[in-house]
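FORM 12-B: Structure-to-Sequence Request
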């Protein structure tokens, strides 16, 4: 009597693959190659179009704050002030939005009743669907007026801190106002990632902390936050990337000014994206190429931020 090894009969012939697997694998590979090609094409376009202004520029493009006329005679362009304003506005937004987003995510996951959590999660996600021009209208039409008295109080009580020294702008169109608007815009991104990470905390870790006599907050501090730290950092950096590239809201609120100023309650500073949006319609000659050069700098900054975010998320380790 002969016997047959089940493992042998169940094994598929070597080298035989289903048609669906082959099609799916090639489609996925093609999609990955396509997105890399698009990214390389955008970079090549920006580099090629910015060469003329960089080659003819009479100022140091990376250290100068001058932005000359659009003529072809001795152009002088510098992105230092624009890059400073871009990073400053995004940093303010990140500082304001991150703790609020973490608090909202913790409330939705661990404190709110199920129905309240569902509604609140929907409302937070809805913030991401609002166009940036609407945020700009809200900022310039209502928020700036409300913030002027608050800025006066900041100068009165915290004016000894250089960031809050006066004189306070009477219009409210300051870098701090832009930071607040950007914070509202990136809040859904950080909240969504933090909420997803908090929901993935192993139940055994939470129960172990509670079994040892920890309160709910102590359980969150000892078990939830350490586990979710990489996800929080990744979400914050993705939000930072969004804030760096925001255009319309910033252009509508800030008064154009090519200065490097740390005073958050005074009018001044500008971002790269807003400057391009405001200047491009009337740019000619080397001015167009210079604006594309500024766009290349913004592209590099945003790319570095998003790559860093992906690196942090991919290196997430299982909490032990």
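FORM 12-B RESPONSE
SEQUENCE OUT:
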């Amino acid at each position: 009597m002969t016997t047959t090894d089940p493992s042998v009969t169940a094994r598929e012939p070597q080298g035989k693959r289903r048609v669906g697997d082959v099609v799916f694998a090639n489609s996925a590979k093609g999609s990955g190659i396509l997105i890399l090609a698009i990214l390389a094409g955008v970079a090549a376009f920006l580099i090629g179009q910015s060469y003329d202004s960089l080659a003819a520029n009479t100022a140091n493009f990376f250290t100068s704050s001058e932005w000359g006329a659009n003529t072809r005679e001795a152009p002088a362009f510098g992105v230092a002030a624009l890059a400073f304003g871009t990073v400053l506005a995004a940093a303010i937004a990140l500082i304001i939005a991150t703790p609020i987003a973490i608090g909202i995510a913790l409330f939705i996951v661990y404190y709110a009743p199920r129905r309240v959590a569902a509604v609140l999660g929907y409302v937070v996600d809805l913030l991401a669907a609002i166009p940036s021009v609407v945020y700009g209208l809200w900022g310039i039409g209502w928020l700036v007026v409300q913030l002027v008295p608050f800025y006066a109080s900041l100068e009165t009580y915290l004016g000894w801190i250089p960031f809050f020294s006066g004189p306070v702008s009477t219009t409210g169109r300051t870098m701090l106002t832009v930071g607040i608007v950007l914070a509202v815009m990136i809040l859904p991104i950080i909240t969504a990632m933090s909420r997803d990470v908090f929901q993935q905390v192993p139940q055994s870790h939470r129960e172990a902390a509670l079994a040892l006599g920890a309160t709910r907050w102590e359980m969150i501090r000892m078990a939830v936050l350490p586990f979710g730290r990489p996800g929080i950092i990744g979400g914050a950096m993705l939000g930072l990337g969004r804030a760096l590239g925001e255009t319309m809201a910033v252009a509508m609120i800030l008064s154009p000014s090519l200065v490097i100023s740390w005073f958050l309650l005074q009018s001044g500073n500008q971002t790269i994206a807003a400057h391009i949006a405001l200047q491009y319609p009337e740019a000619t000659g080397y001015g167009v190429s210079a604006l594309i050069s500024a766009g290349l700098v913004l592209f590099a900054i945003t790319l570095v931020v998003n790559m860093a975010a992906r690196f942090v998320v991919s290196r997430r380790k299982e909490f032990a």
